[in-house]
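Q:
Got a chain?
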Amino acid sequence: MSELLPFSPPRALRNGQLQTAIGNLPPMPWLTRRRAAALLTKAREWLLDCGDGVRLQGFLSVAQGPANPGHGVDEAVEAAGRSVALVLHGWEGSAESCYVISLSAELLAHGFDVLRLNLRDHGASHHLNREIFHSCRLAEVVGATHAVAERFVGARIFLAGFSLGGNFMLRVAADADAPSTIAGAVAVSPVLEPAATLLALERGWSVYRRYFLRRWSRSIRRKRSVWPDLPDLKPILRSRDLRAMTDGLVAHFTDFGSLDAYLDGYAITGQRLAALRFPATVLLAEDDPMIPAADLARLAPSPLLTVVRTRHGGHCGFVERLNRPSFADRLVVAHFDRFAARPRNRY
């Protein structure tokens, strides 16, 4: 199902570039964290055992009662009837990203327990795993959902992700090994066709390219500082070119034979989402400067997939008022409520 929903921010906020950048501009981060005071006060770090020796860092905020009463964050509790939301950031974002904090605060206010998850080598997690992050490491994110299912016994698990995080969550929802207690997934501005997104970053506004180059270079240097036995990454950093850096990462740290094979490895266009096991929603703005909306037509049709388009919103923006939940926040909550109303085991 595909639908065009009205999202009409004030005229001053209708520019896609502004919507994309606004979460990083003052006073948005400060306003968002102030609105999320309850979420941040309740948050407790949780190192999730994701299998094969992999650990991912998360921050758990429990909606009802004190955080983790009588239990550590990794101890199993009977949680039948509870709803747990996993929220995943985009590439070179983190559990502290403004859009993650905003959505998580809204979910907590609606009674969800919330886990803000960091991908490998994001946030302050570079020391947890020796091997470097790449976007085809799906098994460990699936492993994180199993860790949540084992911690919250009987709870329904809801998945939300932004940009690359949205791409991951959609792949989890189509993965045969994902836990059966997943209720559904919502992806905001997800990467659809990685090759198209890389091209858009190369040809688009140079501010985005410089932003990702700076953050990725800093992440790689931090990785080498805590794992000095890793191969020398200076030649990759010297290129100062996203395509060349990605090609170098593929050659040195993956088993993919080419850059194109790697990019295809996490594309969700083609038949990838035909295998969806749980209901999923994609939200994408037509003025997104990084994700071509035309690629929505390349998603496999599925009775479990809903595609929502808006004319405005930029990339992970969808801001209507500076100190209020975004349109995306409210849509995620509404679709999670819809997923919760579906009978278990229907899918």
